[in-house]
């Protein structure tokens, strides 16, 4: 433990981001690369193979992927890296070695790798990295500098942002590496990854399998291989009806995040009923329409259109075939990444949403991440200037004191432009039957007139207690919605519930 703290502070220079950033999305290629890195790290070779194929199909190159699987050995060891490369080699063989090769690295810089590696490490971390650990074991300092930050990071066919994306995905998929994960999150931020993108990488790392979550009450069905060539990304299909006399084909179609179908049209038209997650529908020449459960789309005959999931949310809709006796479908070109991202850009059709939370042990953070994925807002973690103790008894004692004395601990997080948000999800753990004091600091620090606040609470068995009612007292000018309340131990299995709640409540009338 002592050493992991030492490694954290020595190796890597945490720069806590303050305030919030505008949300960027990972591209589809980056999402696929994160899944590849996560599977390489957790050693699930059958799933890795599928993720590799999906990555190649999405446009990743052979050399780009090789580079990441080689880099994997520095973070998860030669066995995982070699197995991943072996899986990739076999897949390439099966695919006829026809995938685009991509760039090879240029020559390494002149001089010794320890020298340019030390320079790279300083640049990556923002300051020279030194300390007692490296005096204790100088060999590790040499290997880190010469080999990892020298030889590997000097290979210039993959940029540092992408290397950090892959590293975060690998560490996020492993256990027992929290200090290194936190450190690389910090390095990733220095190298162009936003908080929102890091949230996405971590979500992929924790669930890289394209195992569809059950986003609605309807069955998800099987992977839609029959029509896969008309889709970008994976989709799943469950037929719901079958009585020929009624002749009303209805399917539940589930799209993984980022998945959409090609432009297409139906001579008989079609009806979509959104039932889970967040998605989009766009008719040629028109703005995309954001879809949440309960939305109905009547697609006119012969209108060219596409539909699919939001970049960061699973999505399910029922598809009702209209005029099935005569209907014919015509499939057209895929929706390009650029068109898809332009159509689904956050905030275009949704309220300006901020998801803000405090979390001591991670439960509320997890829920906040899912809410943000669903509502596509900005995400801000409330960080205190003086961190709470890591020890449970000590933190409880401090929390009790602060709550009894009405202490509002100063925050290092600042929301620069509160005026731009009209809806704010506010997450807190239940601490001594009320909100955690950093949330109280947040609520007393801004003017919430005219804004809608939506609390979410995680707890250890005491439920919502006075968390939301005390929030109302501190922000009397805001309109409050009913809180989402989840027991800490149940958070891991609550993703579908959180997605559905967030998608509905963000659009509900007060
Ligand atoms: C200081 C402290 C006080 C707590 N007090 C309560 C409580 O009064 N009632 C309760 O149900 N859970 C209580 N818990 C448990 C947390 O609410 C629960 O574990 C929560 O999910 C933690 O969220 P986090 O992981 O985001 O920090 C407390 C936890 C801590 C650390």
Q: How is this structure best described in words?
A:
With 510 residues, this protein is α/β, with parallel strands linked by helices. The chain folds into three domains: 2-106 and 155-206, Up-down Bundle (AhpD-like); 222-343, Sandwich (Jelly Rolls); 353-505, Flavodoxin domain (Rossmann fold, 3-Layer(aba) Sandwich). Helix content is 40%, strand content 17%. The protein contains 16 helices and 20 strands. The chain has helices at residues 2-11, 28-42, 45-57, 62-94, 113-125, 132-136, 138-152, 160-173, 178-190, 195-206, 337-343, 363-375, 392-405, 437-444, 467-474, 495-505, and strands at 222-223, 231-232, 235-239, 250-255, 260-261, 264-266, 270-277, 279-283, 289-291, 296-299, 305-309, 315-321, 329-331, 353-357, 378-381, 423-431, 434-435, 452-459, 479-480, 484-487. Strands 14, 15, 16, 17, 18, 19 and 20 form a seven-stranded mixed beta sheet that branches. A six-stranded antiparallel beta sheet has the order 1-3-4-12-7-10. It has a three-stranded antiparallel beta sheet with strand order 9-8-11, with no helix packed on it. Strand 18, helix 15 (467-474) and strand 19 (479-480) form a beta-alpha-beta unit. The longest helix is centred in the first third of the chain and has 33 residues, at 62-94. It is flat and about 80 Å long. The chain starts with a helix and ends in a 5-residue tail after the last helix. Residues 1-23 have low confidence and may be disordered. Bound molecules: flavin mononucleotide (FMN).
């Amino acid at each position: 433990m002592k050493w992991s703290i030492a490694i954290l502070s020595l190796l890597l220079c945490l720069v806590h981001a303050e305030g919030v950033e505008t949300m960027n999305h990972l591209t589809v290629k980056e999402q696929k690369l994160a899944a590849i890195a996560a599977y390489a790290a957790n050693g699930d070779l059958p799933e890795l193979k599928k993720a590799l194929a999906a990555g190649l199909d999405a446009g990743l190159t052979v050399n780009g992927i090789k580079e990441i699987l080689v880099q994997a050995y520095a973070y998860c060891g030669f066995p995982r890296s070699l197995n991943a490369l072996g899986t990739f080699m076999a897949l390439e063989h099966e695919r006829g070695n026809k995938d685009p090769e991509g760039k090879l690295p240029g020559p390494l810089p002149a001089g010794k790798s320890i020298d340019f590696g030390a320079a790279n490490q300083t640049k990556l971390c923002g300051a020279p990295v030194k300390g007692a650990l490296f005096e204790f074991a100088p060999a590790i300092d040499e290997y880190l500098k010469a080999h990892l930050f020298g030889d590997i990071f000097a290979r210039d066919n993959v940029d540092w942002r992408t290397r950090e994306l892959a590293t975060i995905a690998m560490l996020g998929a492993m256990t027992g590496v929290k200090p290194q994960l936190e450190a690389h999150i910090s390095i990733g931020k220095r190298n162009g990854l936003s908080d929102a993108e890091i949230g996405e990488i971590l979500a992929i790392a924790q669930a890289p399998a394209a195992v569809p979550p059950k986003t609605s009450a309807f069955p998800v069905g099987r992977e839609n291989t029959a029509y896969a060539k008309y889709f970008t990304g994976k989709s799943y299909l469950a037929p719901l009806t079958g009585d020929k006399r009624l002749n009303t084909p209805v399917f539940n179609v589930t799209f993984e995040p980022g998945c959409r179908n090609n432009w297409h049209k139906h001579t008989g038209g079609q009806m979509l009923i959104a039932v889970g997650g967040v998605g989009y529908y766009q008719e040629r020449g028109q703005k995309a329409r954001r879809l949440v459960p309960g939305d109905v789309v009547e697609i006119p005959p012969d209108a060219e259109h596409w539909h699919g999931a939001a970049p960061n949310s699973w999505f399910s809709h029922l598809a009702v075939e209209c005029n099935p006796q005569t209907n014919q479908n015509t499939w057209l070109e895929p929706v390009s990444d650029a068109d898809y991202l332009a159509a689904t850009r956050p905030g275009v059709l949704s309220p300006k949403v901020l998801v803000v939370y405090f979390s001591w042990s991670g439960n509320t953070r997890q829920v906040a991440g899912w809410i943000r994925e669903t509502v596509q807002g900005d995400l801000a973690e409330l960080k205190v200037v003086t961190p709470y103790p890591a020890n449970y008894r000590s933190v409880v004692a401090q929390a009790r004191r602060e709550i009894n004395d009405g202490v509002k601990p100063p925050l290092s997080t600042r929301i620069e432009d509160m005026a731009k948000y009209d809806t704010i999800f506010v997450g807190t753990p239940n601490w001594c039957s009320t909100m955690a004091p950093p949330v109280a600091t947040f609520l007393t620090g801004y003017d919430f007139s005219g804004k809608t606040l939506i609390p979410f609470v995680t707890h250890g068995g005491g439920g919502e207690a006075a968390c939301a009612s005390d929030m109302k007292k501190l922000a009397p000018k805001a309109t409050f919605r009913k809180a989402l309340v989840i027991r800490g131990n149940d958070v891991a299995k609550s993703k579908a519930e959180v997605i559905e709640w967030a998608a509905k409540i963000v659009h509900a009338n007060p």
